[in-house]
C-alpha cells in the first residue's frame, strides 16, 4: 500500500469552513462574494465535491477559466490557474492539468514567488507520475522525478523542510513504480531521517509503510527471505500505533502485508490471523481495493493450509470485488469522455438554435421587404426608385445578417473540432510510443489513419514475464463512439495482462469478453440488447522460444509472410462483447511454427473494406495479401507503401472506416 503526497500544496489551501459547506452554500459564495481570494477557495472546495460528476466538474472548470481571465492580481491569477490544473488532474485530464499548471508556474516565476513556483513544480511532478501510471511510459516517470527535484531545490533554499520531505516521498514512490528499488529506498530514508528528527509521527508511520512495501516488492521479485523480514519489521512498526479504535486504510493495508509475509515465510496460521484482521478492518472502512487484495491472499493462504472451503469462499469474494472495481473504473473513464463530448455538444446545440433564429428573422425581414415594395410600386409609382433603393438596402442588411450567422456557425464548428482534437490527444496518450515498440520488435511499422479525428481502432503493446504482446483492436463504430470503446478496451488489457498477469492469448480474450460485457451492461437480464464490441488479434512472442508464435483472434486474422508466400492465420469466428446467443464464448490460443525471417502483418478491416478502383468496389483481403507479398517489409518506411497504395485505390472516394496496419519481423 503506497502513500503519496500528490499536489500537496493545494490540499490545505482553503479553510476547513469552506470544505464543510454544502454545494449550494459554496455556489452562493461564488455568485455573491466580491473578494477574489474567497471565491477561489470556494471554487476549490466545490471542485472537490463534484469530482465524481464529470459534467458538473467540467462546467465548473469553464467558470474558473473565465474567472482567471478577469483577475488583475497576478498572484491570485497564478493561484487560480494552479487550482484549475489540480481540478483537471483529479478528472485524469493530465495534459490540461499540465497546461494550466505551467501557466501558473510562469507567473509565479515572474513574481519571484519561490513557494508558489515550488508548489507548481510539485504538482507537475505529480501529474507526470499519474500519466506514467496511466500509460506505463517510463518517460513520464522520469519527468515526474525531474520536477520533484526542482521543487526540492527551491524548498531547501527557502527552508521548507516539511514539503521537502513530501517530495522525497513522492520520488521514492515513482522509483518504486519503475522497479528501481535501491533509488526508492534512498529517497524514502532521506524523508524518514528528517521526519524522525522533527518527531512527525504520522509521517513516520507513512514512510514505514512505504519502506515496508518497497522491501516486500524486492523480496517477491528476488525470492529473498531476508528482505521479507526487513519488510515485516517496517509493517510491524506501523501497527505499533494501532490501538483498536483508530482503523484506517494504512493499518488495514499493513495487517494484510504482515499476513502475506508470514504466509510467504511458511507460518500460514499466523499469516491467516493477520489477514482476517485486515479483512474485517477493510470492510469496516469500506475500502474495496484492500478487501479485494486481502481476499486474494486469504484464498491462497487457506489453500496452502488445506482448508479448501474457506479458500473458495475468499476466492469468490476476491472476484466479486475485482469485478466491482473494474466496472467502477470503466464507467468512470466512459463518463469522463462522454461528459467532455456532451459539453461540446450542448454548446453546439445552443449555438445552432440561436443561429436558426437569426436566419429565420433575416428571412422574414426579406419577405416583408418584398411585400412592402410591391404594394408601394402599385400605389406610388412616383416613388418607385426610393422603394427599390430601400429594398436593396434591406436585402444587403439581411445578407449581412446571414453572413454573420454562418460565420458564427463556422466558429462554433471550429470550437467543436478543437474539443474533439483534444480528445484525440487524450486517446494518443494511451497508445504506446512507436520508438518503445521498435526497441522490442524488429522492423516495426504502423500505418494509422482514423476516419474521423478520433478512432475506434487502436494498438496495444507490453512486455510481461519474458513475453512480448502486440495487439490490434477494431472497436464498434468510429469517431467519438469508437474512441469511447477504445478507452474501455485499453483499460481492460492493462488490467488483464499487466495487473492480473494473464499471459495466455486465448484466456486474455475470454477475460476481455467478460470485461466488455460487464462494462457495457450486456450481461444483465431485462436490458435492451446491444451489440457493441471489438474484433481483436493478439500476438505473443516468448523470448525463450522465439521460433513459435502464439496467437488468438476474435473475428480477426493475422497475416504471415515467409519464403515468398503469405498465409492467413485465423482464430475464433465471434467478436468480443455483443450478443452471441445465450452460450458463453470461449476463445482458444493457437501456435504457429515460424520460418526464418518471417513477417507478421496485422490489420483492421478498414483497409480491405475501402471502396475505390475503376469499379468502385472493396479492396478485399486477396489484394491485401498480394500487397504484403509485393512490399519490401525490411524497409524503414514500409508504412508509406501501405498508405500510398490505399490512397491510389481510394481516389476521390471518402475513407470508409478507420484504418490500422502494423507489422514486424520475427
Search tags:
Phosphatase 2c, domain 1, alpha+beta, 64% helix, globular, 666 residues
Could you describe the 3D structure shown?
This protein has helices at 16-19, 23-32, 36-49, 54-70, 74-90, 94-110, 114-135, 138-157, 161-177, 181-197, 201-222, 225-239, 249-264, 268-284, 288-305, 308-379, 384-430, 434-440, 479-499, 505-519, 620-630, 638-650, and strands at 442-449, 457-464, 467-475, 533-542, 548-554, 557-562, 565-570, 576-577, 590-593, 599-603, 611-612, 617-618, 659-665. The chain has 666 residues and is of the alpha+beta class. Among the domains are: 335-427; 432-665, 4-Layer Sandwich (Phosphatase 2c, domain 1), CATH 3.60.40.10. Strands 2, 3, 4, 5, 8 and 9 form a six-stranded antiparallel sheet that branches. It has a five-stranded antiparallel sheet with strand order 1-13-10-6-7, sandwiched between helices. Strands 11-12 form a two-stranded antiparallel ribbon. A hairpin with a 4-residue loop joins strand 11 and strand 12 (617-618). The radius of gyration is 30 Å and the shape is globular. It starts with 15 loop residues before the first helix and ends with a strand. The model is unreliable at 6-16 and 525-529 (pLDDT under 50).
Layout of strands and helices, then pairs:
Blueprint: H1 16-19, H2 23-32, H3 36-49, H4 54-70, H5 74-90, H6 94-110, H7 114-135, H8 138-157, H9 161-177, H10 181-197, H11 201-222, H12 225-239, H13 249-264, H14 268-284, H15 288-305, H16 308-379, H17 384-430, H18 434-440, E1 442-449, E2 457-464, E3 467-475, H19 479-499, H20 505-519, E4 533-542, E5 548-554, E6 557-562, E7 565-570, E8 576-577, E9 590-593, E10 599-603, E11 611-612, E12 617-618, H21 620-630, H22 638-650, E13 659-665
Helix pairs in contact: 2-3, 3-4, 3-5, 4-5, 4-16, 5-6, 5-7, 6-7, 7-8, 7-9, 8-9, 9-10, 10-11, 11-12, 11-13, 12-13, 13-14, 13-15, 14-15, 15-16, 16-17, 16-19, 17-19, 19-20
Amino acid at each position: 500500500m503506497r502513500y503519496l503526497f500528490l499536489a500537496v500544496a493545494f490540499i490545505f489551501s482553503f479553510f476547513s469552513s469552506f470544505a464543510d459547506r454544502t454545494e449550494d452554500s459554496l455556489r452562493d459564495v461564488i455568485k455573491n462574494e466580491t473578494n477574489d481570494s474567497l471565491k477561489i477557495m470556494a471554487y476549490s472546495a466545490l471542485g472537490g465535491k463534484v469530482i465524481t460528476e464529470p459534467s458538473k466538474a467540467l462546467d465548473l472548470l469553464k467558470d474558473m477559466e473565465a474567472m482567471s481571465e478577469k483577475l488583475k492580481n497576478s498572484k491570485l491569477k497564478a493561484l487560480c490557474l494552479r487550482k484549475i490544473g489540480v481540478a483537471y488532474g483529479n478528472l485524469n485530464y493530465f495534459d490540461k492539468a499540465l497546461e494550466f499548471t505551467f501557466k501558473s508556474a510562469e507567473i509565479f516565476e515572474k513574481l519571484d514567488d519561490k513557494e508558489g513556483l515550488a508548489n507548481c513544480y510539485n504538482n507537475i511532478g505529480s501529474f507526470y507520475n499519474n500519466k506514467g501510471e496511466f500509460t506505463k511510459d517510463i518517460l513520464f516517470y522520469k519527468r515526474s522525478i525531474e520536477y520533484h527535484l526542482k521543487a526540492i531545490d527551491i524548498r531547501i533554499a527557502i527552508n521548507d523542510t516539511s514539503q521537502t520531505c513530501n517530495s522525497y516521498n513522492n520520488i521514492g514512490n515513482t522509483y518504486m513504480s519503475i522497479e528501481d528499488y535501491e533509488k526508492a529506498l534512498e529517497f524514502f530514508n532521506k524523508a524518514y531521517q528528517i521526519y524522525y528528527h522533527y518527531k512527525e509521527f504520522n509521517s513516520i508511520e507513512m514512510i514505514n509503510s512505504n519502506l515496508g512495501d518497497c522491501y516486500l516488492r524486492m523480496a517477491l521479485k528476488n525470492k529473498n527471505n531476508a528482505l521479507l523480514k526487513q519488510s515485516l519489521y517496517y509493517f510491524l512498526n506501523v501497527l505499533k500505533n494501532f490501538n483498536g479504535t483508530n482503523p484506517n486504510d494504512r493499518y488495514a493495508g499493513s495487517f494484510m502485508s504482515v499476513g502475506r509475509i508470514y504466509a510467504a515465510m511458511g507460518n500460514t496460521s499466523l499469516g491467516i490471523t493477520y489477514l482476517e484482521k485486515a479483512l474485517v478492518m477493510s470492510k469496516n472502512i469500506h475500502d474495496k481495493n484492500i478487501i479485494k487484495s486481502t481476499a486474494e491472499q486469504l484464498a491462497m493462504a487457506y489453500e496452502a493450509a488445506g482448508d479448501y472451503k474457506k479458500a473458495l469462499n475468499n476466492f469468490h469474494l476476491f472476484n466479486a470485488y475485482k469485478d466491482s472495481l473494474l466496472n467502477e473504473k470503466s464507467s468512470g473513464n466512459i463518463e469522463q469522455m462522454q461528459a467532455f463530448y456532451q459539453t461540446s455538444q450542448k454548446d453546439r446545440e445552443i449555438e445552432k438554435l440561436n443561429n436558426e433564429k437569426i436566419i429565420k428573422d433575416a428571412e422574414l425581414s426579406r419577405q416583408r421587404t418584398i411585400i412592402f415594395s410591391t404594394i408601394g410600386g402599385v400605389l406610388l409609382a412616383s416613388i418607385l426608385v426610393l422603394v427599390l433603393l430601400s429594398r436593396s438596402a434591406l436585402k444587403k442588411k439581411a445578407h449581412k445578417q446571414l453572413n454573420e450567422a454562418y460565420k458564427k456557425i463556422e466558429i462554433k464548428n471550429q470550437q467543436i473540432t478543437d474539443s474533439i482534437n483534444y480528445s484525440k490527444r487524450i486517446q494518443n496518450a494511451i497508445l504506446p510510443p512507436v520508438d518503445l515498440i521498435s526497441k522490442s520488435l524488429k522492423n516495426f511499422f504502423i500505418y494509422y489513419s482514423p476516419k474521423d479525428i478520433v478512432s475506434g481502432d487502436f494498438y496495444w503493446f507490453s512486455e510481461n514475464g519474458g513475453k512480448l504482446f502486440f495487439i490490434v483492436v477494431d472497436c464498434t463504430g468510429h469517431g467519438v463512439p469508437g474512441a469511447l470503446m477504445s478507452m474501455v478496451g485499453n483499460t481492460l488489457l492493462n488490467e488483464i495482462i499487466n495487473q492480473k498477469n494473464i499471459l495466455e492469448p486465448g484466456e486474455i480474450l475470454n477475460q476481455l469478453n467478460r470485461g466488455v460485457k460487464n462494462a457495457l451492461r450486456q450481461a444483465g437480464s431485462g436490458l435492451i440488447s446491444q451489440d457493441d464490441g471489438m474484433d481483436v488479434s493478439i500476438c505473443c512472442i516468448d523470448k525463450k522460444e522465439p521460433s513459435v508464435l502464439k496467437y488468438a483472434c476474435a473475428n480477426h486474422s493475422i497475416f504471415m509472410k515467409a519464403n515468398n508466400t503469405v498465409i492467413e492465420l485465423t482464430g475464433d469466428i465471434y467478436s468480443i462483447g455483443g450478443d452471441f446467443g445465450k452460450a458463453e464464448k470461449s476463445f482458444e490460443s493457437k501456435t504457429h511454427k515460424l520460418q526464418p525471417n518471417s513477417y507478421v502483418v496485422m490489420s483492421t478491416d478498414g483497409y480491405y473494406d475501402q471502396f475505390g478502383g475503376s469499379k468502385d468496389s472493396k479492396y478485399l483481403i486477396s489484394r491485401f495479401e498480394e500487397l504484403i507479398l509485393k512490399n519490401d517489409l525490411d524497409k524503414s518506411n514500409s508504412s508509406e507503401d501501405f498508405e500510398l497504395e490505399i490512397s491510389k485505390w481510394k481516389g476521390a472516394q471518402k475513407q470508409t472506416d478507420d484504418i490500422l496496419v502494423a507489422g514486424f519481423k520475427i
